[in-house]
Amino acid sequence: MKKSLSGYLGAMAAGAALLTATACGGNATATPAAETSTITVEHAQGSTANVPVNPEKVFTFDLGVLDTMDALGVEPAGVPEAAYPDALKKYSDAKYAKIGSLKEPDFEAVSAGDPDLIIISGRTAGAYEELSKIAPTIDLSIDAAKPMDSFKEQAGKLGTIFNKSAEVEEKLAAVDTTVAGTKAKAATAGKGLIVLTSGGEVTAYGAGSRFGIIHDVLGVPTAADVKSEGSHGEAISFEYIKQANPDLLYVINRDTAIGTEGSANAILDNELVQSTNAAKNGKIINLDPAGWYIVGYGLNNVKAMVDAVAGSVA
To answer: How far apart are CA 296 and CA 142, in angstroms?
Structure first.
């Protein structure tokens, strides 16, 4: 079993003062690199972990985290088997150890890889205890109830771990600028409905859901009171869409996201959906399936998500 790196360095000159630096979100602290090799990180499992600064071998099961690492120029050593979107396609290469799927870690592969740090999120949260026995493990799940704040905290922690805090702050500032502009336009752009298509079925997502950033952060008014919570949406009919009559219909095609057949446009090409304001005004917006369903909250991908909504309300 791999031993966890422990605490702050103790062999310091008598009387020398320790300086601390706090990451965005205020949940990670570190002493200067010359004086320490670890930081303490609070994470979604309700506990803390001692994490090495600038770890050499990082395994991540979360593609949002991978997207942030990619944006910061940090190379992972291990990634899951997945249908990678074009922006992350290079990680399907064999040079990156495959450590299981997005939901199921391959514990033998992880252990054999001897990582310095393992990063998980909601899909693999249940494996936390077992993975923690192998190496320092942190759960950087996004809280759907406060997605943008949670994402910023996550990015801040990664910035501290990899000594990239300045880069993180710069990229978050750019996102904030676009969010502010989008929110101002969204208020008068009409009401929106978010749907996910999968295997011929349609599910709606509302405020507070996994795709709730459209309503909660970007300010698109809701066209219906969708009964969705967290990662789960509400199964709906085409009559539901007609009755909601959205001005903006945001569509995520799960079939494409996971690499199976299925066209969202074909599913929604019926008289009921075509009678809505969104269809009549050319406002059925096909969101990037992999970006929204698979990747989610990463520094590059969140910018792309916000830009997509910004374009729909322009």
So the answer is: 9
Q: What is the DSSP string of 91-139?
A: GGSTTSEEEEESSSB-HHHHHHH--SEEEE-GGGGGGHHHHHTTS-EEE
DSSP, collapsed to helix, strand or coil, labels residue 78 as: strand
Average pLDDT over residues 207-223: 94
Least confident of 28-32, 229-233, 250-254: 28-32
The per-residue pLDDT for range 106-131, each reduced to its tens digit, is: 999 999 999 999 999 999 999 999 99
Residues 286 and 264: beta-carbon distance below 8 Å:
yes
Q: CA 122 → CA 13, 103, 142, 144, 188, distances in Å?
A: 43, 9, 8, 11, 35
The packing angle between helices 165-186 and 147-161, to 10°, is 160
- Residue ranges of alpha helices (H) inside the chain are 63-71, 107-113, 128-132, 147-161, 165-186, 213-216, 238-244, 254-257, 264-268, 271-274, 277-280, 289, 299-312
What are the tokens at 291?
Answer: 């970006």
Amino acid code (one letter) for 182: T
Distances (CA, A) of 43 to 48, 109, 143, 168, 205: 6, 24, 11, 18, 26
d(CA 217, CA 214): 6
**Cβ–Cβ under 8 Å, residues 57 and 78:** yes
Amino acid at 9: L
pLDDT tens-digit map of 157-201 = 999 999 999 999 999 999 999 999 999 999 999 999 999 999 889
CB-CB contact of 238 with 129 (8 Å): no
Q: Which pLDDT does position 33 carry in this prediction?
A: 42
Q: SS3 letters for 15-28?
A: CCCCCCEECCCCCE
Give this prediction's pTM: 0.85
What's residue 106's pLDDT?
Answer: 98
